[in-house]
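Supplementary Note 3. Input sequence used for the single-chain structure prediction.
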Amino acid sequence: MAQAWRCSGLRWAADGPVLVWEGGRRSALSRGKRVAFGVGEGGGRTCVGARGHACPLGAAVPGRSTGARCEECARLDRAHSVAADTLADDPRPYRVYLAWFGPGMTKVGITAVRRGPARLLEQGAVCFSWLGTGPLMAARRTEELLRAALRVPDRIPYAGKRAVRAVLPAREGDRAAEIAGLHARAVALDGWPESLTREPFRPVDHVEVFGLSGVPAAVGEVRELVAGGAVSGELMAAAGPDLHLATAKGIVVLDTRLLTGWGLLPGGGGEFAVPVRAVKGRAAAQDGLF
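The predicted structure, written as discrete structure tokens, is reproduced below.
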């Protein structure tokens, strides 16, 4: 029987996206590569634990969960995150940014300076610009100020991001126009913390990095993996955690967060046998494609 591998998720490296596996093995995801694997028979999806520690219960988790953690491990993981505001004394510098995912979809957020643009790549930001740099709590207060004053959210649903990737403006300047206007309004606001240094508008575009130029619209999205299932397709683009795979039915998006917690096996065929839902807004009546 073939050895089962357990995926730790997708990471963005300097030379592109890679799948990371328990034990440290990494699989580069270059465009044109065939992504093919099977899901172990008779097993289930189990909690991936928290903060580098295994789940003490080995709890089962739903196939549709993008977090792959049981309730207790999810609580522990979030309790030590920047988003939970429990790291007020963190001495490292942070950056505030504006990120654009498509027309009408801009968010404000923060990330550690040491991470560079990794957070933006992980979220699938089509383009972004830094707004300011400073201590964590100053960055957090600025984020809240901009959310209220500019009426921009700190989260964009992935369904919305996926829906517009095939119809993005062709020119970089057009893709940056929305955050250019918001950046100008943001730096003109009063109330910024004195310890946060404002940064000029310098848009960074990820369309070529993601491979989105010319990629057809997706016809479906993988809903979940199932025991005994299989996935196979040619990688056309990768944005955030999403892989856009060319299959016999058209482009299908696989959110790699659905892979964690499963035992995966090498796959060599062209079989695609997992539940897939039709992309919202397309002319399709069926609940699933496969």
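The radius of gyration is 20 Å. The CA atoms of residues 31 and 38 lie 21 Å apart.
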